[in-house]
Amino acid sequence: MYPTVLEIGDVVISSYSVMVLVAYLVGYFILEKEIVRKGYDPKLADICLIATLIGGLGGAKLLFIFQQASWSEFISEPVRYFASGYTFLGGFIGSFLMLILVSKIKKVNVWVIIDAICPSVIIAYAIGRIGCLLVGDDYGLPTDLPWALSFPNGSPPTNLSVHPTQIYDTILMTALFIFLWNIRKKDSRAGWLAAVGFSILAIERFFVEFLRETSPSFIDGISQAQLMSLGLLFIFMSRLVYVSIGSGKSSEKPS
């Protein structure tokens, strides 16, 4: 574990914060390439980056607070909950909503934008999970597998050998990014790439959650993250079916 990259007096820069920054920078670099390849003004990538920063960080924080604290706990210690903790799915939903807003303002098909940003989100997720590993967060349940890790200084700390689910996520999402990058130029209708990529992401997250102890939902044996994953899977599988049976192409070009 390497939870701290730099500490100067009271200022502490965590490895998680650094990896989140790296994730956004890499994601932006890839997004800009895709925006330009599709024939749009590269400034659209800047707008999308700002939108995902606001929606992603805001959504990730709100869902974290919802899952981790009651209203009274949050009111009594708001700084504690604002200072730590994010959830990927909350950030994903928040970013998605902000991109819908961007598409309305810029008069661009939202699925064109989501297609362009899909590979970026996947590789950013893979990089962000490295940050979780470095600070000992979001690990899995106890296991006796030979690659199990312990996080005695983690958040929360554990001396048990547990599933390094952060590594699972990073490996699987890196493989998914490579797959998407190789098929991104396929002549298909708007939304096809995003439907494929985010459907696989939702399936991966659903099954990885069985190896973690997370906030339960109102359905016995299913966590809140799994329930949201199923919701995302329904949305993107519906889009995949729609673009697969629809006639013609709609990989929209700028006017």
Describe the structure.
It is built from 9 helices and 4 strands; from the N terminus they run ββααααααββααα. It is mainly alpha-helical. The chain has one domain. The strands form 2 sheets. It has a two-stranded antiparallel sheet. The protein has a two-stranded antiparallel sheet with strand order 3-4. The longest helix is centred in the first third of the chain and has 26 residues. The chain starts with a strand and ends in a 10-residue tail after the last helix. The model has no long low-confidence stretch (mean pLDDT 86).
Q: What is the element layout, followed by pairings?
A:
Layout: E1 4-8, E2 11-14, H1 15-37, H2 43-68, H3 71-76, H4 78-83, H5 88-106, H6 110-135, E3 149-151, E4 158-162, H7 165-183, H8 192-208, H9 224-245
Helix pairs in contact: 1-2, 1-6, 2-5, 5-6, 6-7, 6-8, 7-8, 8-9
Provide a quick synopsis of the model.
The chain is mainly alpha-helical and 255 residues long. It contains nine helices and four strands, in the order ββααααααββααα.
Helical stretch count?
9
Which whole number gives the mean pLDDT? 86
Largest sheet: 2 strands, antiparallel
Number of strands: 4
Provide the domain count: 1
Q: Percent of residues in beta strands? A: 5-15%
The chain-level structural class is: mainly alpha
Strand order of the largest sheet: 1-2
Descriptive labels:
mainly alpha, two-stranded antiparallel sheet, two-stranded antiparallel ribbon
